[in-house]
Predict the 3D structure of the following.
Amino acid sequence: MRNIFAHLCSLLILAIAVEAEESNRVKVTFVNEFPFDVELFFESSDGSRRVSQGVLKGRGGSVSMTTSLGHSFTYDTTNTRRYIEISQNSKKDVENAIILGPNAIFVRCEVSAHGGTELEDLDIIVRPQWSPWGAQRFLQLIREGYYDGCALNRVVPRFLTQFGIGADYAKRTKVRTNTIPDDPQVGILFRPGYMAYAGSGDNSRSSEVFIVMPETSESQLKYFGTNSWETPFAEVDLSNFGGDATLSPMARWHSYGDMPPYGEGPDSQLIYAEDGYEYLKENFPELDYIQSCFIVDEKFPNDPEVEEL
């Protein structure tokens, strides 16, 4: 009888251990934003075992897996071994993204201003640690040329500018339903020039992005981020304007007012239609557009001037 009881206790303990392990399981995607390939390793807690998880190609290569909270991974860069621990804040209901790479990735967009009468450079600093999925999706779409020709369709002074309904009908239709998970909030407070995704509910981010406009009120700045999808992933580089957003291209974009029903500006649903850009040209001729976007160190590798951007 004692043996049976001991056996049952052992089974119970094992079941509890398995259940505890399962409750700590999370899905993770590692994305390599370094310009070179990186081999990722799982490393045991005592450092005695290091198991390769695969080689991630530079500039967007990725690997997905299921692992546990607290597990450690390592990868090597030039003369440096870097460590990653799966955070206790990782979400268990959706896939989590972890970016391997620099803390700042520079993007330059050529945008029109003053109703399309001028062209200016808009420099953007992407911050992968703020919002990994958000940063990864934005960089992916930049590489694909998705934002080239994209309308700044919602320009509301002292509030936001929104864009991301691509000029190509097939592309915008496809990406519209290809959503990414929300990222955990990490305490980044919104300021003019900060960028986040527009959304319609949990895990609804796809391609539409908003930029906080100059002179946005403090109360509105505090309200940004109260929705689960509003995690900043980038900021407009204001260093060339002394940190003053009112001197940047953002202050010179033509506004037709907010979208319906809040105003008489362009209707997002009509832009998504097959003739959406014809609708914009006919009804909002002074709208401003993104002409092109590129990742600076990919277009100009090894250029010392890149360090000055």
Observations:
- The mean pLDDT is 92.
- The chain is about 20% helix and 30% strand.
